[in-house]
Amino acid sequence: MSDTTLKTPLKVAILGAKGYPYVYGGYDTLVRELGERLVAKGVEVRVYCHRALFPEKPPMVNGIKLFYTPAIETKTLTQLSHSFISMMHACLSDVDVIFVVNSGNGPYGLLSKIFRKPTAINVDGLEWLRPKWRGLGSRYFKFASRLATKFYDRIVTDSFEMHRIYKEKFKTDSTVIAYGANPANHSNPELLKKWNLKPYDYFLIVGRLVPDNNADLILGGFLQSKTKRKLVIVGDVPFEDEFANKLKNIKDERVLFTGYVKDPEELKTLYNLSYAYFHGHEYGGTNPAMLKALGYGCAILALDTVFNREMLQNGKHGVFFEKETEQVTETIHRVEQLPEEMEALRKTARSGLTDMYNWDNVAEAYLKLFLELKSSKS
Asked: 257, 164, 167, 160: which is closest to 204 by C-alpha?
């Protein structure tokens, strides 16, 4: 993809994530990777940061202007209140385009309509189906996602399957721009000694310990298996949680919970030297953990969903299992008898990162989108 030449000044505000350079999840990674590349292209980028997460509050980092906005600090209101305040500030500023992440921020597009600010929103996954949003939360996210399609000028979906779902469910077209990956060819086996692990002697799960990532399903199938390998579970939740605690209280000498692994070299090594990586994420589109697995050369065992099939090119770069404990057990036993096939998947994993998962191409696509939005309102 050729670089777009920036002929006139462009000011873009980004909000809805935790901030910059804070990286906890997919949205935060998108803000960092996109923001830095836009600055390099001459764009003035402003990122709204969740004030409580930043003990130090520099006004600018790596050329990105930072605004630290407050929030109502409760489990359900933190993100929404932070986004509301950020949106109000952005609407009253001189930015040319406002870019929002998270479909939960759908209603705030009304503010940008009132203030006539061009907007785009990345709606991410099917939040209303996630088990953690049962009841009122689920209804809110479905309502908010529908409003996003009414109030924002452009909807961004991160996969073709998500594009299809928004077209069918909300009768709305969207621009498909995936997340990017940072592939790496090398890792350091010495780093595994921290957890008393050996290369290819463990299966790996990476992700938040929430129901829709299905760590409980995978763990249940693993415990029923006869494998002598370990199951390493990387991740946690940033709050006290019954589901996560129940998992972490399971005692088996083959199961290792590492908690968060913040050192990128350690995380890369855990991916790269796993026998296979289990991906149980169910309701997202392009998943950052899956991109890491491809980029770090993993043999991937994935829950059979339309999103995972899209990312793994219908099995070219992974093995699928159904959402049943026995299926997980059977998959473990089967792949342990296929070491050559697992090695072949590891060797070809990085070739699964097509151009749409290249961060430079992702940034270029967003820049074209933002310039279109600016010109449409000028």
From this structure: 257
CA distances from 260 to 31, 99, 167, 208, 257 (A): 20, 29, 36, 9, 9
User: What superfamily does domain 11-180+358-377 belong to in CATH?
Assistant: Glycogen Phosphorylase B; (3.40.50.2000)
DSSP code for 16: S
Pick the CATH number of 189-354 from 1.25.40.20, 3.40.630.10, 2.40.50.140, 3.40.50.2000: 3.40.50.2000
Whether pLDDT at 228 is above 90:
yes
- Whether residue 128 is predicted with pLDDT greater than 60 in this model: the reply is no
Name the residue with tokens 């065992």. Answer: 301
Q: Model-level pTM?
A: 0.90
Amino acid at 122: N
Predicted pLDDT at 331: 98
In 3D space, the residue among 302, 340, 308, 337 whose CA is nearest the CA of residue 225 turns out to be 337
Q: DSSP E strands: which ranges in 33-192?
A: 44-50, 60-61, 64-69, 97-101, 119-122, 154-157, 175-176
